[in-house]
């Protein structure tokens, strides 16, 4: 971090502590505890890590009984989640909602300090329309059950991704998708009435990575210095990309008449590694993003955003671990603060009081690799699922496999499953990469800069 920025941030710490003591009592920085890995520490060890990192809140993607039991008496506030697949039933039958609350809340509360219930995750755009339509009713049912038990300190929310927006730039033009409104409007009414948050999964990494020519990396990493953007619609001045994204949602809500719903960031972070063709995914940037984010949110929590100054934004970092079973491009498996072994990828202080950290490795990939890359069988691939995957791929390649890999054909030699698989992966990826298919294939494939053979794709 440059010395000037350190000086400015230290100054704001001073202000925060001199006139904002009440805010330093509760740490509003949480951690998402995702468990999509086959090599992760036990819930017991994981909670120890989360405590030692001094997080204020832990957010689960389920309501795992063992984890909820272990969280009792830890002082950590907790967010649990209704699975997307449970939404419809909870909405359509109140006794199912009651049972859900009994089994997943009352069984642990108040010893386990459950403070948030997330109903579904990123339901818009991914899930079936039935789930989307049922969302608010499910939230209402859960809320009613809690009220009947005289529980008033648990907020109900529904994390949305930025895909719920049809326009997010400039921020003052922020608009929700027209076809989302039949649920977004009742959702906002519910959040407004219950004083809950609009939970947003928001990753400046994605717009930056899509458009690194036109968005400064420093702007995305909160180190723009004197870089700023003035929104022509509102005249507000932005010094970082996250504020722009948050305000696009603030403006979209305001256009629907909701000017007082606060945002909580249910997920944010920066990938610490990724595929060759993904720029900027490295430890340097991940540490810089998360450290600067924490300084913004924890050290001076009432900073808010240009459109909503003075408002605290509870913020959940994504994620505790690198999770090796997540699908998609390489970045998806590299959002962690910790290796699966429990050792940190870089040091981080969730209280926002630490300014001096060990120097970070120099970023090597802030631009995507520009040479040719090939998608081949990964070096340590588990071959047992390969056969069916290959036949499936070759079917979708309309004869390409037969034409190239048959005896005597151009790519027949060397005759090995490894080579033929690499051929099929490369051909498939070459065909579908532009429509967003990652080179992953259940973890069997990875990108290489080394031409796997004389047979080119
Ligand atoms: C609601 O769920 C309960 C418990 O699963 C079941 O007994 C009841 O028949 C359901 N009611 C309706 C209307 O589906
Ligand atoms: C859609 O939701 C399911 C869980 O319900 C999740 O496993 C999957 O990754 C999601 N897909 C996308 C593209 O977000
Ligand atoms: C913002 O929205 C207004 C009204 O829809 C439109 O006229 C204007 O061009 C938009 N601004 C930008 C920069 O897209
Ligand atoms: C970057 O900005 C230029 C000039 O406004 C525009 O022509 C170009 O399409 C932009 N690039 C991307 C990837 O959006
Ligand atoms: C601020 O802007 C000046 C020029 O306008 C530039 O020389 C300087 O490097 C900038 N500082 C930072 C921290 O970006
Ligand atoms: C939001 O809630 C407040 C307080 O209950 C109420 O006065 C206001 O009308 C609500 N706003 C909307 C747009 O429903
Ligand atoms: C390989 O994958 C199969 C399922 O496809 C699984 O049963 C097996 O345990 C895996 N082997 C290793 C070493 O991971």
What attributes does this structure have?
hydrolase; 457 residues; 2 domains; 36% helix; binds 2-acetamido-2-deoxy-beta-D-glucopyranose; X8; 15 helices; TIM Barrel; alpha/beta; disordered N terminus; two-stranded antiparallel sheet; disulfide bond; nine-stranded parallel sheet
Describe the structure in your own words:
It catalyses: Hydrolysis of (1->3)-beta-D-glucosidic linkages in (1->3)-beta-D-glucans. Pfam families: Glyco_hydro_17, X8. Residues 1-20 form the signal peptide. Its EC number is 3.2.1.39. This protein has 457 residues and is of the alpha/beta class. The protein folds into two domains: 3-333, Glycosidases (TIM Barrel); 374-448, no CATH class. The chain is built from 15 helices and 15 strands. Strands 5-4-3-2-1-13-12-9-6 form a nine-stranded parallel β-sheet. α7 packs parallel to α8. Residues 1-24 have low confidence and may be disordered. It binds 2-acetamido-2-deoxy-beta-D-glucopyranose (7 copies). The site of one 2-acetamido-2-deoxy-beta-D-glucopyranose has 2 residues, from loops.
Topology (elements, then pairings):
Elements: H1 3-19, H2 21-24, E1 29-33, H3 43-52, E2 57-60, H4 65-70, E3 77-82, H5 87-92, H6 94-106, E4 113-119, H7 129-148, E5 155-157, E6 160-161, E7 165-167, E8 175-176, H8 181-193, E9 198-201, H9 205-210, H10 217-220, E10 229-230, E11 237-238, H11 241-255, E12 263-268, H12 283-299, E13 315-317, E14 374-377, H13 386-396, H14 400-405, H15 417-432, E15 445-448
Parallel strand pairs: 1-2, 1-13, 2-3, 3-4, 4-5, 6-9, 9-12, 12-13
Antiparallel strand pairs: 7-8, 10-11, 14-15
Helix pairs in contact: 6-7, 7-8, 13-15
